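Query structure, 82 tokens:
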């Protein structure tokens, strides 16, 4: 399995969530890039967020966002250390 542009767009949306607060959601406006709008809808369809345009992370979505953000931190740190 490889990272498709669609999966990368979904990971980018998950990386935007503030994991320090379950009370803080995300809104993907209709003026956002079409890839971001579509990614948010797919995350909703996968039951990772509670609204098709963002909203709040579901329990599964929180797990996914934690993993996505951890991976991003690891890859970014590894790049800086090289």
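Result returned for the query:
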């Amino acid at each position: 399995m490889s990272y498709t542009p669609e999966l990368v767009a979904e990971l980018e949306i998950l990386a935007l969530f503030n994991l320090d607060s379950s009370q803080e959601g995300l809104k993907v406006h209709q003026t956002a890039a079409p890839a971001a709008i579509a990614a948010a809808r797919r995350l909703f369809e996968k039951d990772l967020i509670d609204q098709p345009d963002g909203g709040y992370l579901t329990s599964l979505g929180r797990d996914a966002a934690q993993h996505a953000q951890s991976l991003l931190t690891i890859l970014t740190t590894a790049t800086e250390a090289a």
